[in-house]
């Protein structure tokens, strides 16, 4: 089994010394750099580059540079997503964002988990857990979503939150660690999923 296959199955794998993964990350980082250096007025080129970076995305995706990810192919964007500046997605595992998502500046989605054992970390070993964000979700600025977290439809995550555990649908949640503060009553929100 290759290191990439181990990674995609959530097994312990070698992230730092595997040639295939190093090459794929280098290609992705080059594409990120090109995207980040494209003029804001060159909308056509930015859309082309974003489609190359994140091939598993739908329509109406707008990401203000800079945007950084590790592979791109593990990211799935739904329809109509707006992301403010400085998004980081460490997509060693799948990162899925639903439809109608708003993400504030300086947000991060981190799927990689490093072993507690220092010897394993020093060998470059890690594993990854997927992240899933439902439809109609708003994440304020400086939100960090950690490995294995799911956020339900229609929820709002307050600025500066560190989301360490699943957040249900229809809630306002914030803090470090992020926790549910109150329910949200939805009024006439169409279900487009």
Note down, in words, how this protein is organized.
The chain has 193 residues and is an alpha/beta fold. The protein has one domain: UDP N-Acetylglucosamine Acyltransferase, domain 1 (3 Solenoid), CATH 2.160.10. It is 21% helix and 31% strand. The strands form 4 sheets. The protein has a 7-stranded mixed sheet with strand order 3-6-9-14-17-19-20, with no helix packed on it. Helix 2 (19-36) packs antiparallel against helix 3. It starts with a helix and ends in a 10-residue tail after the last strand. The mean pLDDT is 94.
Structural class by sheet pairing and helices: alpha/beta
What is the H level of CATH, i.e. the homologous superfamily?
Hexapeptide repeat proteins
Count of alpha and pi helical runs: 4
Mean of pLDDT = 94
Note the run of SSEs as H and E.
HEHHEEEEEEEEEEHEEEEEEEEE
Write down how many β-strands occur, each being a DSSP E stretch of 2 or more residues. Answer: 20
N/C terminus separation: 36 Å
Strand order of the largest sheet: 3-6-9-14-17-19-20
Indicate the proportion of strand residues: 25-35%
The whole-angstrom Rg is 17 Å
Biggest sheet descriptor: 7 strands, mixed
Query: Architecture in CATH?
Result: 3 Solenoid
Q: Remind me, CATH topology?
A: UDP N-Acetylglucosamine Acyltransferase, domain 1
